[in-house]
Write a structure and sequence with these properties.
GO cellular component, one term: membrane
Number of strands: 0
Strand content: under 5%
Order of helices and strands: HHH
Protein name: Protein MANBAL isoform X2
Oligomer: single chain
Pfam families: UPF0239
Structural class: mainly alpha
Membrane topology: Single-pass membrane protein
Subcellular location: Membrane
Radius of gyration: 33 Å
Helix content: 25-40%
């Protein structure tokens, strides 16, 4: 009766090239996501040059005030009629 039981490991086929590519691609994607999450959580101190530039850049310092453009969706308010 003991000879009837087969305790040998089952035969597993070797993974194909596409399965390996998918496996390692998923690993790389997970590592990339961890790096992105850590970049958000861990603050990076700014260097002295970035914190206080010696020469202000004219393009960045001079900004034009934004003008509000009425949107297409909104209709202008109707003025109330004058009573006679």
């Amino acid at each position: 009766m003991a000879s009837d039981l087969d305790f040998s490991p089952p035969e597993v086929p070797e993974p194909t090239f596409l399965e390996n590519l998918l496996r390692y691609g998923l690993f790389l994607g997970a590592i990339f996501q961890l790096i992105c999450v850590l970049a958000i959580i861990v603050p990076v101190p700014k260097s002295y040059e970035e914190a206080e530039p010696s020469e202000p850049r004219s393009a960045e310092v001079t900004r034009k005030p934004k003008t509000t453009v009425p949107s297409v969706n909104k209709r202008p308010k109707k003025e109330p009629k004058k009573k006679r």
